[in-house]
Amino acid sequence: MSISVQNISKKYKNVQALQNITFEVQEGELFGLIGPDGAGKTTLFRLLTTLLLPNEGSASVANYDIVKQVKEIRNSVGYMPGKFSLYQDLTIEENLTFFATIFGTTIEENYDLIEDIYVQIEPFKNRRAGALSGGMKQKLALCCALIHKPKVLFLDEPTTGVDPVSRKEFWEMLKRLKQKGITILVSTPYMDEASLCDRIALIQKGKILKIDTPDTIVKAYDKTIYEVASNQMHQLILDLKHFSSQYSVFAFGEFIHYIDKNDTFDTAALRTYLQEKGHQNISIQKTTATIEDVFMDL
Amino acid sequence: MKRFIGFIRKEFYHIFRDKRSLFILFGMPIAQILLFGFAITNEINNVEIAILDYAKDSESQKIIQKIKASPYFHIENEIFSDKAIESEFKKGKVKAVLLFEKDFAKKLQTERKATVQVITDATEPNVANTISNYTQSIIQNYQNQKNTVQKSNGVVIQSRMLYNPELKSVFNFVPGVMTVILMLVSAMMTSISITREKELGTMEILLVSPLKPFQVILGKVFPYVFLSIINAIVIVSMGYFIFGMPINGSIFLLAFESILFIITALSLGILISTVSNTQQTAMMISLMGLMLPVIILSGFIFPIASMPLPMQVISNIIPAKWFIIIVKSIMLKGVGLEYIFKETLILLGMTLLFIGLSIKKYKTRLE
């Protein structure tokens, strides 16, 4: 077991950040923590990287206890905090050299591990980190977190503030790292990234709501979801919320996802209702559930 | 060791790439020493004075000649009535008027007593005081010369100023500025550089790395020890070459004591960084908590002996006070370690206390 968390609770002065969290991550697994801001993701990362002590419960990373074997853990994990944590006034190369040195290794020694990523930023290696774009910063931060060949990699919201193309590339890199046997615990507020993980934990307000593979979670969802659109989208949300048998309504990209209380729901009734409210170009279609739908329903 | 060197190299990158910190490090010592050395001084030179001579005899003329010959005074003009004195002061150019009474020489001969009045413009009390002291000593001097010929009785005061016969203020300012600069550079810069890592979140990574806390702290401190020593050398040599400040004692002892004080200041800086989370707080604590006491309570500008008793007691906990005593003793009096043993011991004790407290307060986790 690469990461094992048993009944962990963490309380700040008057906020219960984590409540009775339990989960396990297999070796070489890409495990996602999915949840909105303030759900307790960062606290969990800090606990597992020995930066915080739990109030209750126990946990181990790479078979080392997070309270008693701090030194061993610090030698064998890579951590990329949510805030961009590299030295802005140092160049790409200097940053990487620095992190290699303090972990007692060199860039050359573990070059094969970071090669795929590093070649993309190498042309700018003499540029200061402060002058890099968001995507390049993340790549550099990932290189720095990987340079000492960690057994477990902790990535706290690595794709926040990164453009869609770089995000996609980033996840492809994670897949390749996984193939090299590194366990990865990654958190993200983006639901669409959840399906790229082996298994995910949906976390909210310090509690884990569900743990499973993304497919299983989606398949287990038994409600029918309708994609609704009309010429006045904002008014549409308000009107749908006033529909007598509505179960949930939320904006989803260019559509509105609508779920009805009744299994025997007739779209015609909804269409008539919306027409009466003055909507035109109404489209109502069945659609398949996504992680976001599941999350919104929890 | 390799890790440690890598860390120090990174610190030097930070220092040399930040124009602001470079300026504080090297611009400030030079600017301060030049400022204090040239502009802010208690000495008087070429002060404009006026003469009101009712006597106009040989004795009064001789004294006027003496005063004219000194570099301190320049006789701006001669006035002829009491009324003119005030209007002269109101014009503002003249800072003092020397008034010789009627029949000055005659009275001196017959009554062995004659008066010279020194009237000063006390809107600037320090200057007025100095002028009156200087004129007194010139006249005293003249009298003494006369007396040796004429054999007088009575008490003759002979004062000798040891270690700084010309009362040069630079002898006071060089040790003072050195203390202020070393305190500022060492304490403020280290506390800022440690809190910057906290603020940028890089401390999180350093904590998770196998780097030990004392390695992080030592790595932070080392570059500043090095730079502070350079600063001390610059200040002492500027004092020596530009202002003629003597170094009468052992230069090695001076170096040793300076390094001790640098370490005291650095440990204070570390202590500050353990209690503050942002660069702003660290800077405020350093400025308010260190700079002001160093300037006001260390005896650098205001003599400690003339402070109210509570202030005198407080001044004892200011490391700068002890360092100023040490530097003055070595540079001016040329004493050896045995004379400044107590002060050295106090600094050493303070350093150990600060380091102890820092270690106790240093967090290896985030809370």
Question: Your description of this structure?
Answer:
The complex is a heterodimer of chains A (about 300) and B (about 375). Chain A folds into two domains: about 5-220, Rossmann fold (3-Layer(aba) Sandwich); about 225-295, 2-Layer Sandwich (Alpha-Beta Plaits), CATH 3.30.70. Chain A contains ten helices and 14 strands. Chain A has helices at about 40-50, 70-75, 90-100, 110-120, 135-145, 165-180, 215-220, 235-240, 265-275, 290-295; strands at about 5-10, 15-25, 30-35, 55-60, 65, 75-80, 150-155, 185-190, 200-205, 205-210, 225-230, 245-250, 255-260, 285. A six-stranded mixed sheet of chain A has the order 6-7-8-3-9-10, sandwiched between helices. In chain A, helix 3 packs parallel to helix 5 and helix 4 (about 110-120) packs antiparallel against helix 5 (about 135-145). Chain B has 14 helices and four strands. The radius of gyration of chain B is 28 Å and the shape is elongated. Chain B starts with a helix and ends in a 6-residue tail after the last helix. The chains are: A alpha/beta (about 300), B alpha/beta (about 375). The interface of A and B includes residues 52, 77, 81 and 102 of A.
* CATH H-level superfamily of the largest domain in chain A: P-loop containing nucleotide triphosphate hydrolases
Question: Architecture of the largest domain in chain A, CATH level 2?
Answer: 3-Layer(aba) Sandwich
What is the level 1 CATH name of the largest domain in chain A? Alpha Beta
E-strand count of chain A: 14
Class by helix and strand content of chain B? alpha/beta
Query: In DSSP terms, counting alpha (H) and pi (I) runs of 4 or more, how many helices of chain B?
Result: 14
Q: How many structural domains in the coordinates of chain A? A: 2
Question: Can you tell me the residue ranges of chain B where pLDDT is under 50 for at least 5 consecutive residues?
Answer: none
Most extensive chain interface and residues per partner: A-B, 30 and 26 residues
Strand content of chain B: 5-15%
Using only C-alpha atoms, the radius of gyration of chain A works out to 22 Å
Helix content of chain B: 55-70%
**Share of helix of chain A, binned:** 25-40%
Discrete helix count of chain A: 10
